[in-house]
Design a protein that fits this description.
Largest sheet: 8 strands, mixed
CATH architecture: 3-Layer(aba) Sandwich
GO molecular function, one term: hydrolase activity
Protein name: Alpha/beta hydrolase
Strand content: 15-25%
Pfam family, one: Esterase
Helix content: 25-40%
Oligomer: single chain
Number of domains: 1
Keywords: Hydrolase
Radius of gyration: 18 Å
Organism: Lactococcus nasutitermitis
CATH superfamily: Alpha/Beta hydrolase fold, catalytic domain
Length: 258
């Protein structure tokens, strides 16, 4: 297994960007030069970047025996959307980045059924936003994600420079493609399988409960789980392993020796 830092020029963002990639060992891949390696795009939350999962979760240890590549990009604080201030993170990550990755790593699959996406908090929002807004991902997972802004509308006024810079006004946000539930209602094909978890003591728990109920009404194939937990890495580190078990890959757990 190799952990690779790739610096590339993003035409969409007109700047150099860094992305971290975990690339599986040849011994884990049958017919390594020909086989299409499945790919998980793994998204950080607010205050994080492309290094967050590597530094905080031990993700490289979890998949060291598994044929899976992981791609970890950064959206800065841009919520993985095309912001109103002109930084088009959605286009850069959903449309441009897969082409960049495949150019450097042609063994990675471009097939929808072998491309997955997951994230935490802001990244949980991003995972659903990118999966529902494209036809590129067959599975999408959210851990403590911001899946709805119901009950959080006041944030658009309390920190207007930031939130309106990302989404515009609350009126512009409602029913736009940036509203997860509105986007989910409009999507009619290439619907991804969804997974969501949120801790019961998390400030986002009520929003996750509401979003899960609405997604089920829309007949999405959603696995929704809750347990005691707050908004922090202790829980996300545990839950990302459940996401790996949920994905259609041959996930091989590391044998724990006492």
């Amino acid at each position: 297994m190799a952990v690779i830092n790739l610096e590339y020029y993003s035409e969409v963002l007109a700047m150099n960007r860094n992305v971290k990639i975990i690339y599986p060992e040849a011994s884990k891949v049958e017919n390594f030069t020909e086989k299409e390696i499945p790919v998980l795009y793994l998204l950080h939350g607010m205050t994080g970047n492309e290094n967050s999962w590597l530094q905080r979760s031990g993700i490289e240890r979890l998949i060291r025996h598994t044929n899976l590549a992981i791609v970890m990009p950064s959206t800065d604080l841009g919520f993985y959307v095309n912001t109103t201030y002109g930084m088009n993170y959605f286009d850069a990550i959903a449309l441009e980045l897969p082409k960049v990755i495949h150019n450097f790593f042609p063994n990675l699959s471009t097939k929808r059924e072998k491309n997955f996406i997951a994230g935490l908090s802001m990244g949980g929002y991003g995972a659903f936003r990118l999966a529902l807004g494209t036809d590129k991902f067959s599975y999408a997972a959210s851990l403590s994600g911001v899946l709805t802004f119901n009950g959080l509308e006041s944030r658009f006024d309390e920190n207007a420079a930031y939130w309106q810079g990302i989404f515009g006004s609350i009126e512009q946000f409602k029913n736009s493609d940036n509203e997860i539930l509105a986007l989910a209602e409009r999507k009619t094909e290439y619907c991804p399988k969804l997974y969501a978890w949120c801790g019961k003591q998390d400030a986002l728990f009520a929003g996750n409960e509401f979003a899960a109920a609405e997604l089920k009404k829309l007949n999405y194939d959603l696995t929704y789980e809750t347990s005691d937990g707050i908004h922090e890495w202790y829980y996300w580190t545990k839950k990302i392993e459940q996401v790996l078990e949920w994905l259609p890959i041959n996930y091989v757990k590391e044998e724990r020796k006492i």
